[in-house]
Protein 1
Amino acid sequence: MAVTHDLDAARAALQMINPAPYNAEAPPEALGGEITPTGQHYVRSNFALPAHDGKLEVGGAVEHPTTLTLDDLRAMPAHERAVTLECAGNGRLEMRPLPTGEPWGDYAVSTARWTGALLADVLTQARPAADGVDVRFEGADHGAYHLQPILPETDNDDLAFVRALPLAHAADPAAEILIAYEMNGEPLTADHGAPFRIIVPHWYAVASVKWLKRIDVLTEPYTGEFQTGHYMYEWPDRPPEPVDVMRVRARITDPAAGSTMSSGTCTVRGKAWSGTGPVTRVDVSLTGEGEWHAARLDPPSAPYHWQDWAFDWEANDVGRHTLRARATDAAGNVQPEVPPWNRLGYGNNAIEVIYVDVV
Ligand SMILES: Nc1nc2c(c(=O)[nH]1)N[C@H]1C(S)=C(S)[C@@H](COP(=O)(O)O)O[C@H]1N2
Ligand SMILES: [Mo]
């Protein structure tokens, strides 16, 4: 287990929003990069850092229950994927009325290179029962919960972090869900789930269980505080829905919000991503109402990797200017103008508005 002084070094570049459990945003400049350095990747944890005995139990409704170690996982075919992870609570601070929950600004999103075994390979070896429906993932972290639980059966004094995926998705090799043991070419750090974690591409990162301890195949749909209590969209006007794939979103990385610049041509740049991607277009607006202009959009460099876009703006008029960027994805999803309000404040993908002063 890492000592406190190592943790301080690992966390030095982040914007802390809660010391215990430790939650922190990426520094804004990290959004400009292709790959987020590990020390700049946001951290979201619901409990204190756990001890982990190095074992992964695979069981439940399977023919061949097993216990795997890091060496066992490393002996399996390795898969490396760059994956953009975004916290479902990212952007909560812009919702009105302000929901409860961690006060995330807009920097709980990062992209790292993850290496691990395919979850589908591990499940193939375990041979799930024919009537399996869900796969349950349990983290080693547990304890008193710092939020008000939603499910009446939740034991608030000793709760564990547990999530589930449909078996059909978990066992699909094409979904490329990893049991990752490396991040950016190094063993996982304490904050990011050492010794191994799940990485679920395209899903809000709540699905990517850290400090993975158990995998169980279930013959009934899973219910639990982090699945059917929290991490549900509680809409004001329609039935609740589970938080699953990331909603389409573009961000402006350049020029910096609120900055002052000299008049002339300015290349506006940013990132875009979607869980129902790839992103197929980004449009930029230079006024409150009115015209949208198509930006140049790079194709994704890898299937789960945020995309770069750019737009040349003739910033000849001195004064304050508003800039907005709006992404559309391959499924036809477009960002809304207004945050899609839900009681717990998840999935805010509203169009970003910034201003810059041209002098
Ligand atoms: N075991 C465990 N896994 C977890 C969590 C947690 O609290 N415990 N938080 C989840 C949430 S809400 C997010 S956004 C991501 C954050 O991953 P990161 O800290 O590596 O950025 O981890 C997910 N996996
Ligand atoms: Mo999250």
Protein 2
Amino acid sequence: MSNLFLLISLFSLLIFHPFIIRSEVLPLHHGRKGEWRLLQPSIGVSAMHMQLLHDNRVVAFDRTDFGPSNLSLPGGRCRYDSNDTALKVDCTAHSVLYDVETNSFRPLTVQTDTWCSSGAVSPNGSLVQTGGFNDGDHAVRVFTPCDDDSCDWVEYPVYLSRRRWYATNQILPDGRIIIIGGRREFNYELYPKNGDPYSASSGSFWLQFLQETRDENENNLYPFVHLLPDGNLFIFANTRSISLDYNRNTVVKEFPPIPVSDPRNYPSSGSSVLLPIDENRAIEAEIMICGGAPRGAFAEASQGNFVRASSSCGRLKVSDENPSWVMENMPIARVMGDMLLLANGDVIIINGVERGTAGWELGQSPVTRPVIYKPDGSPDWRFSVMSASPRPRLYHSTAILLADGRVLVGGSNPHRYYNFTDVEYPTDLSLEAFSPPYLSMEHKPFQPLILSVDEILKLGQPFTLTFFVPLYLSESKLSVRIVAPSFTTHSLAMNQRMVVLKLVEVSRLTPDSYSLTAVGPSTPEIAPPGYYLLFVVHAGIPSCGSWVKIQ
Ligand SMILES: *[C@@H]1O[C@H](CO)[C@@H](O)[C@H](O)[C@H]1NC(C)=O
Ligand SMILES: *[C@@H]1O[C@H](CO)[C@@H](O)[C@H](O)[C@H]1NC(C)=O
Ligand SMILES: *[C@@H]1O[C@H](CO)[C@@H](O)[C@H](O)[C@H]1NC(C)=O
Ligand SMILES: *[C@@H]1O[C@H](CO)[C@@H](O)[C@H](O)[C@H]1NC(C)=O
């Protein structure tokens, strides 16, 4: 509470010194092309998988069979694994907890192999992380955040009914998590299991679509999955996509294949987002998929011929009666890009390479410039190219949205081990932040600051929040958005979704503070239960996100 009073007294000063004081609150920079900042030269492990939790800490991990990382496990702890292909006694960490607010990290202990695994945050705020390789391929691991430094992974090595290596997870309206596919697994299963969770028979459900869409190397890995407002799942693999009723195990609809016939899933890794769902108009759902690599590019790259990646994006309004793809071209071709929804509803496409595919040593020509896409912009002005990071982010790099609107970027390891020397693209252990143009100085007068908001939002229930903004334009420039933070790995931001809440009214409290009434998401199909970041967006400029829990 005292913090709030301190902030309010600062705000009165803001009128006279708006920029000086705000710079203490949010990162500031100049310019329309965004700004990169190195946060940590090394967190000891390579951030192959990342998830933001509701205490603004990020769980990051790579794999246990990479050899020794650059960070020791605490308390003389070690991992003994006679089957490990790299190191049988490993006293180094392969997972860390990074604290965004203090820019510090500590090692976590993971015992089973997390390589190419998947995850989702359960409604109670614990990260439920599934599968991987070798001794980890049937594992479930739970990380529950804590106030001190005591929490660590809790592992259940034989929970899953099938091997889940390169699977995709999605949180469901009832709070369960669905785990779909994985290499040579043409089926899905649920967490927690029905009945006895440890019975191997409480099982998986066949999904023919995954068998049909695999390529000549059995790959259509990390299928793109999005929960649709009608409760069905959109599943995309390579070029085809369906709407699946997972409860009845039936395909409700098959959509037309994406027209530019480049495959889009691993190893031709494109990326995918569900564009923001807007509760202020009739509910629609639209998917956007960008990048990928032509058929055969993987085999070509294995022979040293790095084929140019795909530059095409497709949008499909899946809620239409007869949807069809609308295609556009990105200014830069890209494979292994990460697509993320930014706090204002724009889409950023970040990381990846211009030639080759996913896989060991198979990518060339890193694309260090992110691109921002405005979904509602006029057709000629939707894409803008951002400034370049000094660090290439190839295979096994990740990006996630942070509460302050920045994008946290880490990872990149195209090698079988930690290779720091004698390679063109060394294993990267750093963390960087990209600040989109909306965080630049010139936008500060329009940037809202949330003063108060309920911690719990109920479905369909009105709530009020108060905010401050130096220069208020009009209600038509205002929106309230909630974002479910993603579990990002291999160019896929699982579970990411944004809902634009229904805005009822705005009223002025003082010359520069306001109160607004909005309505919680109308159904759990639109916003499954759990923690979301709530942003007030004014004239395209987002506030810092406040954590809210949807019940
Ligand atoms: C390993 O960590 C140390 C600091 O603990 C750092 O100086 C070094 O650069 C790191 N190595 C790599 C390859 O990042
Ligand atoms: C090594 O692998 C074998 C065969 O899969 C298994 O029986 C054994 O338990 C494994 N050992 C360890 C330490 O995981
Ligand atoms: C939260 O949910 C996870 C996953 O189901 C479970 O393992 C964990 O014990 C729960 N945490 C609490 C505090 O209930
Ligand atoms: C990476 O390091 C390993 C182990 O030190 C080595 O065997 C391998 O050749 C290196 N990879 C490359 C691409 O240099």
